[in-house]
Amino acid sequence: MTGAEEVREPITQVMEEEDGVKLIVELPGVSQDSIKMGVAGDILKLDAEGKRGRFRTVQVIPFEPDPERIAVTFSQGVLEVELKKRTERTREDSSQDGKDGELSIPMISLEKEMEELKSELDKVLEEKAALEERIGFLQRDFQNIRRRHENEKESIADRKISEIASGLVDVLDSFSFAKESILSSGCDSKSISSMIKGVEMVEAQVLNLFSRVGISPMVATGQHFDPNFHEAVGYVEEGGLGDEVVAKEIKKGYIYKGKTLRPAQVLVNRRPSGKKRERRSSRSSKRKEKS
User: Fold this and answer.
1) What is the pTM for the complete model shown?
2) Could you give the strand order of the β-sheet that contains 215-217, starting from the edge strand earlier in sequence?
3) 87 DSSP 8-state letter
4) Ranges 2-11, 178-187, 207-216, most confident
5) Distance between CA 161 and CA 155 in Å, rounded?
6) Per-residue pLDDT tens for 193-213?
7) How far is residue 201's CA from residue 247's CA, in Å, rounded to a whole number?
């Protein structure tokens, strides 16, 4: 003999509202699919089955609810049913339709809605991340284009300045030759001083212009020979200077932004080789023996 199935009355709260009531029914261990609920007139019937047994309840509503204004949600074992009163219009529609019997109420799962909302949120976040990444690429491309454009403009300006300055460097050479010619002309000292002063004034103007655009003259004499900045036009032998040291500057060199605008033409010192020194020392010793 098998025992009858136990049916329990669920804990139910009825909360009155301004235009209806709200029922809160506790259904522990019950799945949404097992809940069956219907309304007939002012009677609400509910039947559900779960891990903890079967639940059944019948509730009398203090009014006849509007079937179009019933909302049901179910979350974590708690069922909420909102029932609204009929309006005059819905009463007239109901009497004209002449429909009686029990109304089956569809269930709305809050968990399902949350899952759908979370899925939509994840999609929105993915789209947002993709847009932010795209914006980052576009910003970097824009910065690279602007930097490249600025570098190109600067490069063009540097080339133009170098071209103009190269011609002015020859003018400065001409000023130096002019001063040498004036000094060797044999004119009286007053005339020489006046002419040199005029040449030096124009020369100073060109050097001032060079300084303003970043061109500076090299200091070559006494520096170690560097083919990046110096052009050797000859060699000398001076004992007081080190080997491969610039002994004299023939034409001044100029630098623009760390690069050689024109190398300095120089004479480079070279010490005598060891064999030459030995020969010279042997010759001097023979001379002493003869004497």
Assistant:
1) 0.42
2) 215-217, 254-256, 259-262
3) P
4) 207-216
5) 10
6) 878 787 888 888 888 888 888
7) 29
- 98 phi, psi to nearest 5 deg: 65, 30
Cα 102 from Cα 67, distance rounded (Å)? 10
Q: Which two tokens stand for residue 156?
A: 């063009």
Residue with tokens 């049913």: 81
| Cα-based angle 136, 142, 146 (whole degrees, multiple of 5) | 150
What's the CA angle centered on 164, arms 161 and 170, to 5 degrees? Answer: 130
C-alpha–C-alpha distance, residues 120 and 128, integer Å: 12
Confidence of residue 265 (pLDDT cuts 50, 70, 90): very high
Parallel, antiparallel, or unpaired for β 53-60 and 7-8?
A: parallel
Under the banding of pLDDT at 50, 70 and 90, the label for residue 90 is low
Give the integer Cα–Cα distance in Å for 43 and 8: 19
Spatial distance between the Cα atoms of 174 and 54, rounded to a whole number of angstroms: 115
| pLDDT, mean over the chain | 80
Coil, strand or helix at 93: helix
285: Cβ contacts below 8 Å, ≥ 6 apart:
none
